[in-house]
Amino acid sequence: MRPFSREAALAFVRAHTVVASTPLLPEIRLHLASEITPLWQATEVSLEVRGVAPPYWAFAWVGGQALARYVLDRPQSVRGRRVLDFAAGSGIAGIAAVLAGARQVTASELDPLALAALALNAAENGVTLSSLSEDLTESPARGWDVILAGDVCYERPMAERVAAWLAAAAREGALVLLGDPGRAYLPQAGLVELARYSVATTRELEDRERREVAIYRLEAR
């Protein structure tokens, strides 16, 4: 994939999204797209790149929405703590953590367009997020008190690698919170359900218009 500049990424996100909130999270405004396929095609054409990642950053996925709602409703889970929004996408969970009083929030993403969207979304909500663009699963998870991970269990290779990394983080003492609507590769052991939300979505992303999303704590084991 041919690299493109941060300025081009920011301009692309602004041009192909609208600022809106979801019904579950009226407190948070995001740069969102309405359709995934035209946006994906526009990415390759406008930025003159091939093999670009799907524009997951342009949608408020149900797991991230539920995590954000949980954090806002239970600010004690993150208040005064160092938080990682893992595979952050739009950054909705990380933004919620800042609003709930986290001491420091880092959002991790590999997609440069996602990093641009994160920056714009943070600014839209008047918060500050730091960001990381490296694959965190290649090294031990240290330095965070809380890890938020929404919708990370939809592909087997990623789910297995991420589950092992998150389990190691839990053993190191981190509070690991997963937001998941019953994806096929959700770990079957070590999960404690903390809350459940009915989240509106779209058939662009899901096979139905609402999903039941559980918030789990991953136990150290």
Task: Explain this structure.
The model has no long low-confidence stretch (mean pLDDT 89). The chain is globular. It starts with 5 loop residues before the first helix and ends with a strand. The chain has 221 residues and is α/β, with parallel strands linked by helices. A 7-stranded mixed beta sheet has the order 5-4-3-6-7-9-8, with helices on both faces. Strands 1-2 form a two-stranded antiparallel ribbon. It has a single domain (61-218), classed as Vaccinia Virus protein VP39 (Rossmann fold, 3-Layer(aba) Sandwich). It has helices spanning 6-15, 36-47, 62-73, 92-99, 112-124, 156-171; strands at 18-22, 25-32, 82-86, 104-108, 130-132, 146-150, 175-180, 191-200, 210-218. It contains 6 helices and 9 strands.
